[in-house]
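Changelog entry

Holo records now carry the ligand SMILES as an explicit input line rather than a separate metadata file. Below, a converted record for zinc ion, shown in the new format.
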Amino acid sequence: MRSLRCIAVDLGGTQIRAARYTVDGVLEARVGMPTGAQESLASVCQRLKSVIRQVWPPEIPVAGIGIGLPGILDYKRGVVLRASNLSGWVDVPLRDNLLDAFHVPVFMGNDAHLAALAEHRFGAGRGVSNMVYLAIGDGIGGGMILNDTLFTGGHGRGAELGHMTLDVHGPRCHCGRRGCLEALASGTAIARRAQERLERGEDSLLRTLVDGELAQITAQEVGIAVQQGDSLAQAIFAEAGGYIATALVNLMYLLNPELFVLGGGVFRAGDAFLAQIQEAVALLAPDNYREQTRIVPAALWEDVGLWGALALVMMELDL
Ligand SMILES: [Zn+2]
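Structure line, unchanged by the conversion:
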């Protein structure tokens, strides 16, 4: 069994990456290539097979292939119902397609679910039985480990933490509803809020950081301005951090997790946003919950998608 390997694939909107790991989690090979998401479904599938072949020499025995992708999956049938950033990916029987090509077990997972699984098995959540992972980037994704098991819901659509409503009168979310966490506190929402306030004429370092090109502002610039003591940027982080903290306290009441792991692009701009969230939770959470729940940054960054796909194969095959 120890000589077996696992193949992990991270199918993203811009890059497809594949890696070969031992069943002890040692990385042996890794490759990547552009997804070519604007091309046909058949051509993306060809690239997917090609990256797998590049990390899998025919003489090496493989236990299984794991694939993470940003979309809604029918886990039972191995079908991609819909994938964001991959046009034309509707009802794609990806598992059978890869089974026919490679003749080993194939497992698929939503990328945020698998990031939670990766942090639980290899990262910040090791040794914890109940944890919630929140990825705050352009959008907000989530994954949950409950009683040491990945929770995906009845039909694979569970843990969509970005679409919890926090303000019924809030800004419109792309899902069509108002005031979802994602519409209030994602990197996109933070940038939009900064742009709105600058357009109203408020004073801020942000204006010089982007040479007056307000459309260039992202959560990264807001983070830089916070580090330099800019009060508008601080207010924006406090507002967004307050919404995240409110969501975390709701989840504390609902699930009583031991740990929250926070990942995603917004945290790359420094520790200020995380500190803001921790501070707000300390004010909002009842004492017992606050003492029993840690909030930590993710441990796996660039490779979280690959680690997640590996963790999925190991979970499914009991490795
Ligand atoms: Zn929404």
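Spot-checked after migration. The chain is about 40% helix and 25% strand. The chain has two domains: 5-117+303-317, 127-297.
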